[in-house]
Design brief:
Elements (H helix, E strand, L loop, with lengths): L1 H12 L11 E8 L6 H15 L10 E7 L3 E5 L7 H9 L11 H12 L11 E8 L13 H17 L2 E8 L5 H7 L6 E4 L8 H17 L17 E7 L5 H16 L10 E7 L3 E5 L7 H9 L10 H11 L13 E7 L6 H13 L3 E7 L4 H7 L6 E4 L9 H12 L2
Parallel strand pairs: 1-2, 1-4, 4-5, 5-6, 7-8, 7-10, 10-11, 11-12
Antiparallel strand pairs: 2-3, 8-9
Helix pairs in contact: 1-7, 2-7, 4-5, 8-9, 10-11
């Protein structure tokens, strides 16, 4: 898997896949130093950072490095302007002290990064790529330091991560071990492709993982346009017919089904919903498929969101072909569709493989022939090879390990959908 990822990155990054990275950037490392990490594993983490940084051209005119470690205390290790030479930075990395704190105050580490590290006072520059690499072996936990609930602490972590992204910082999230919370990891990262998970700290020793991070970090400046905070609002300038198909089969479960609904409403929020702007339709599917919101009725944002939110979980198997058929019918003028007048977009969300794969292929072919753009979002047991066949292009395929991680890709999906509106 790692080798396949490396080949893709090399293809995308082109000349950046040289042995050294000369990208001009300010890169901040946010390093977990909590007591849940075994001391030898913390040393492995530090050695990994040393090896990764050895690939960069570090100087005040090229790449600058800063670091902060966190547990129950927030420990600034060094700022962008603390050291002028690569050797000094590498020595500073080796001297990072393991605090062994009893809490994991990720939110405070990110707040420190936002308020202190990425400031001109501490050497941050306005005219370079800004990157943060957040490392953790678990989930946010305020411990007994802050008198707040776990839920509120985790919310603060996601808020601080969003603030970083809104300020133009591209955020990577690296999770180690089985205690990492997917929802938090994907909520921190700038996009799903910026999340990296490894089962053990021993994995840090592999050349593949080190190279992947180096190339992906170098790639950011060439292939990623850092989105300004108002990016999603650009969808307000374009019209479309959008129908969502939401999996409600047995395997998704009631809790995850409600997470799907929240995710769909997050996407709806990015559109200007009105009769003469973007119209929204929606259906649920399992053994059968039922449209519960027609395009002709989905012309008021609050009504659309309330209607979606009120849908109840059903039961059955995953018949994706039936869902695509109901979507195709829903795009007709009789149901409020505007074929040939506005872009039409179908978005299917599923947690499994199609029981009627042949039918699904036939229906998606019919949708594409009608000029309808198809997005497929999969989680859990969804099969990537099927998803790619259904979608209009591989760029329109998204996958996350768990429904809880859907929130972390909502901005990326909205942006892709916005581009489809412009076609």
């Amino acid at each position: 898997m790692w080798m396949k990822t490396l080949l893709i990155l090399c293809f995308v990054a082109g000349a950046l896949c040289a042995n050294k990275c000369s990208k001009k950037a300010d890169i901040a490392f946010v390093i977990d130093s909590s007591s849940s990490i075994w001391p030898p594993n913390f040393d492995t983490q530090v050695h990994f950072l040393y090896d990764v940084l050895d690939a960069f051209d570090i100087s005040p005119s090229k790449t600058q490095i800063a670091a902060v470690s966190y547990s129950d205390v927030i420990k600034p290790d060094f700022q962008f302007n603390s050291y002028k030479t690569k050797n000094d930075v590498l020595n500073a990395i080796q001297n990072i002290v393991f605090t062994k704190g009893s809490a994991t105050r990720t939110y405070e580490a990110l707040r420190y990064m936002n308020n202190k590290i990425f400031t001109s006072k501490n050497g941050a520059r306005d005219d370079v790529i800004k990157i943060a690499i957040v490392m953790t072996d678990g989930e946010t936990n305020p411990g007994s330091v802050d008198y707040i609930s776990l839920e509120k602490a985790r919310k603060r972590t996601l808020e601080e991560a969003k603030r970083a992204r809104d300020n133009g910082i591209y955020v990577f999230a690296i999770g180690v071990g089985g205690r990492v919370m997917d929802e938090e990891l994907y909520g921190i990262a700038s996009e799903a492709g910026a999340v990296m998970k490894v089962p053990t700290y021993g994995e840090f020793k592999t050349d593949q993982l080190q190279e992947m991070l180096e190339k992906k970090t170098c790639e950011v400046g060439e292939t990623t346009t850092l989105r300004p905070p108002a990016q999603a609002e650009q969808c307000y300038k374009h019209t479309a017919d959008v129908i969502f198909a939401i999996d409600q089969s047995d395997s998704i479960g009631k809790k995850n089904f409600n997470i799907e609904l929240d995710f769909v409403n997050d996407l709806v929020q990015s559109f200007n919903v009105a009769s003469d702007e973007t119209r929204i339709g929606a259906l649920v599917f399992s053994t059968t498929a039922t449209r519960f919101l027609e395009l002709r009725d989905g012309v008021d944002k609050e009504y659309v969101k309330n209607t979606i939110h009120s849908v109840q979980w059903g039961r059955g198997s995953t018949f994706i072909g039936k869902a695509f058929k109901k979507m195709r019918e829903g795009f007709s003028p009789a149901k409020g569709g505007r074929p040939s007048l506005v872009p039409q977009i179908a978005v299917l969300i599923t947690d499994g493989q199609a029981f009627d794969h042949d039918t699904a292929e036939i229906e998606t072919k019919a949708l594409k022939q009608q000029g309808i753009t198809i997005f497929v979002i999969g989680t859990m047991e969804a099969k990537k090879s099927q998803m790619v066949k259904y979608a209009s292009s591989e760029d329109n395929v998204f996958y996350v390990n768990s429904p809880q991680a859907l929130r972390g890709i909502s901005d990326e999906v909205s942006t892709r959908m916005c581009k489809a509106q412009q076609s």
